[in-house]
Amino acid sequence: MERKHGRNLRADIMSLPRNAWRNRHARGANVVPARSRRPARCFPGALHGAPAALSACFRATRKHVDPPHAADGGSGYARPTRWSGRRWPAAAAVSCRPFSRRRPAAVYTAAMRNGIEHEGSPDPGHRALSDDRQLLRGVLAHDMRRDVRRHLRPMLAWYLLFTGFATVAAAPLTTWSLAALLHWIEQPLAGEFDGLAGLVLALVWLMLAGAFSWFVVSLQQAGMLLVSASHGCRYRIAAAALRGMLRRAGPLAALAACQVIAHALLALPWLCIGGALYIRLLGGLDPYYVISARPPALWWFLLAFGPVLAMGLALHATLYFRWLLATPALVLEGRSPLAALARSRDLTRGRHLRIAMLVVGVALGVAAMPLLVNELYARAATPLLDWLPDSRLLVNAGMVVYLTVHAATVLGALFLGTTANALLVRALFLRLGGQRGTRSVDAAPARPARFVWAAEAAFLVVAVVQAALAVATMNLRSEPTITAHRGASTVAPENTLAAFQAAIDAGADAIEFDVRLSADGQVVVFHDRDFRRVAGDPRAVEQMRLADMRDVDIGSWFDPAFAGERIATLGEALAFIDGRAMALVELKPDAGNAQALLDATLAEVARSDEPDRVMLASLSPDLVRAARAAAPQVQVALFANAALPGTARRTDFDMLGLNHLQLDSGAVADARRRGYRLQAWTVDDPVRMARYLDLGVDDISTNLPAEAVRVRDDRAALNDAERLLARLRSWFRR
Predict the structure, then answer these.
(1) The dihedral of CA 518, 524, 530, 536: what is its sign?
(2) Do 536 and 606 contact (CB within 8 A), yes or no?
(3) Which of 235, 403, 406, 626 is the most buried (most CB within 10 A)?
(4) Chain-centre distance of CA 544, in angstroms?
(5) Which residue spans traverse the membrane (predicted)?
(6) 3 state DSSP class of 408
(7) Are residues 110 and 92 in contact, defined by beta-carbon separation less than 8 angstroms?
(8) How far is residue 491's CA from residue 297's CA, in Å, rounded to a whole number?
(9) Burial 105-116 (b: 16+ CB within 10 A, else e)
(10) CA gap 427, 137 in Å, rounded
(11) Distance CA 85, CA 349 (A)
């Protein structure tokens, strides 16, 4: 059958007019590729003398492969053929279709835009545009699979090159810029922001952080697009892509800025509506009371703001998918940022839902890959470490190999995810009408295979060195302290003398409690702004005198056994603890009384018997700086929900308390380098406690001090080899 089709093809070629063969290099209509793996035949009526295109069709006949795709700007992929000795022309003049009587799968051609067939289409009888399901099937089943086969190694070389570039230049520059901005607005850490001005500055910082992040993502995607449009030596392709990316850095930055600003402006209305609803329904309630008690006002707020939020997110998603193809329009077609946005809007018009399904599906698959790798290692590979002999040397060697292989596997999964995203965007761009001819790079250097393998081996060496350093720098004999959060608050009512006694009995090294200022200037131990949560009393602490507070029962809400428990002053709490544990006093100022609260607290600390066993803490960086300036001899701590690397200065505080969900090995390394203690708060899961102990934090704040002490003691009973294995297990369980 193949030989018969081959004869038909040769007969068709020989029947061409003589001038068609003479003008074989002419560039005319576009290739309309067959979508079938069945043998195809070429019709001379569509030929204008392009032997390279005939070669493509003949290869499709003999080897059952698709000819070059018209969506690649009419050029297909540059690949030499034995027929012509030339690369595919920019636009070949051949129409190929299968023998099957079924309607051939619809395709896109360069003469078609968004489903509209323009004049000059080579075959008006074909449908110009597939339906949405054919679009999804073509992108996933054909385009991306083909691109992965043809560009995987060059993209790997580019990924490694960009990873080095991002590590050396992009990431440090971005982090330094954002850290400098935080210090300029005097908010070095994400603790709490005072007033409207602080909130606005926080939103501006978040917008800039989003712009920087999107810019880095755009740089990586631009390089992938350039690699996929090139041919030649893979290392040369990667180097050329890096140069091309740097040349386009300015337009890409402008494009990222336009997108972030547009999203910020789009978010402004629904954020204002949400703020107004919050002030109207929840403004008079203590935030902690709202979170813990969930009053009816919270549900009214969610009911009112939920539709507004859903509509806002839908608008953001629509805008994102409308501009999804702006980066390839800028990179592949050389358009300006605004023109690229307009081009993407035109290409995606009317197809946002199908594109969203495709992009979200691929994104979920990409996000699942690293998680699956970690899960497989935790369940399948980690138990194998129990077979290692009880030898520190062998365990160290095994951990180095284990961490290296794991890091390489995770990086491979991330590479595949990044590649899939870039190829998806490129395939959509070309399928929907984008054009870009192939480009060639310089000739390969001497022994290119050795050069590329050396570059990839260098990355493996770096991974091994990092794994070895991670094992060598583990502080196996660290003894972190345990802080009881508001006392043993699961055993007794929080911030009461009973809770403090339970924490001391559990073996806690420190007790954290909150203080506020009463109407008569007394420093009282209490967390909330009012008594609504613990006593059902809506009166605020700052509006009540100490004598009136003594009448409020703050124990019955927890358990009837603690009925009659009363509020304590700071002086009474310090006298009760009496040096048996460190007192970590968190300042909770109300509007306008921060300085008064600080002065009164410092006076009480000075009158105590153990002032060296007291540490002041706050979520407000301004209040921490004021405490350090007013009493340099008193230890201070700053609590924060998040910290950008490099933003924490040693002179500001003695201890940094980080939300444990934001804590990682980088935060621990930064604390060691800058010389302050690091606390993880608030951790009640024993598995997480073990992980943070293994990371090397200096303190763990918990509502379960007895459990934390038990986990610490269990770790202390292990030898070095067992502790290394325990650290590895907890690292993979994160």
Answers:
(1) negative
(2) no
(3) 235
(4) 46
(5) 156-184, 196-217, 252-279, 299-321, 355-377, 397-430, 451-472
(6) helix
(7) no
(8) 30
(9) bbbbbbbbbebe
(10) 12
(11) 41
Interatomic CA distance for residues 86 and 66, integer angstroms: 18
Measure the CA–CA gap between 249 and 265, rounded to whole angstroms.
Answer: 24
User: Phi and psi at residue 661, in whole multiples of 5°?
Assistant: -70, -20
* pLDDT tens sequence across 426-464: 888 888 876 665 454 444 445 545 555 665 666 667 666
Could you tell me what percent of the chain has a pLDDT over 70?
Answer: 63
Judged by phi (left if over 0) then psi (alpha if -120 to 50, else beta), residue 521 lies in left
Whole-angstrom Cα distance, residue 433 to residue 435?
A: 6
**Assigned token pair, 75:** 């050029």
In the chain, the amino acid numbered 644 is: L
User: CB neighbours (10 Å) of residue 666?
Assistant: 10
465 pLDDT tier (thresholds 50, 70, 90)? low
Rg for the chain, CA atoms, rounded: 33
3-state SS, residue 605: helix
Cβ contacts of 273 within 8 Å, gap of 6 or more: 305, 308
CA separation for the pair 34, 36 (Å, rounded): 6
Domains, in order of start, for the chain: 134-473 (no CATH), 481-517+573-733 (3.20.20.190)
pTM: 0.66
Would you say the C-alpha torsion 418, 419, 421, 425 has a positive or negative sign? positive
Looking at the DSSP bridge assignments, the partners of residue 636 are 616
What is the full DSSP assignment across 683-714?
Answer: ---HHHHHHHHHHT-SEEEES-HHHHHHHHHH
d(CA 384, CA 409): 17
